[in-house]
Specification:
122 residues, mainly beta, three-stranded parallel β-sheet, 9 strands, globular
């Protein structure tokens, strides 16, 4: 599991069956940025995961659905995040059983990015 903040590699190959987990901030404040100076290769069966960690208490008003780049279900709140340049966590749903908000990761690759696996931030 990689820590919050910025992590830099010269190059990186994620082999079949390997999983790189990005840790996140449960408060949704500190973001993760993976910088690859050369090539990033994710082989079939390999993955980078930055899944949800923001708790439901961080969501919008009582009973509203979670969101990113829009409004959560039942919400009249302002739009959360930016659909064109999504760099913040997804907003968690609110109320009992609201679930967690979406994960977050920013990846900068200065060489080739070959993704035959999975990159996921649910």
């Amino acid at each position: 599991t990689l820590p919050q903040g910025t992590v830099t590699y010269q190059s990186l190959t994620i082999s079949a069956g390997a999983v790189m987990n990005m840790s996140g901030d449960p408060n949704g404040l500190s973001t993760s940025h993976l910088i690859i100076s050369g090539d990033l290769i994710i082989q079939p069966g390999g993955s980078i995961l930055a899944d949800a960690i923001v708790e439901a208490t961080a969501g919008s008003g009582q009973g509203h659905g979670g969101t990113h780049g829009g409004q959560g279900g039942g919400s009249v709140d302002t739009v959360h995040g930016n659909a064109i340049s999504p760099e913040v966590y997804g907003n968690a749903g609110a109320g009992s059983g609201g679930g967690k908000g979406g994960g977050q990761i920013k990846i900068t690759v200065n060489g080739n990015f070959i993704n035959d696996g999975i990159v996921k931030a649910n």
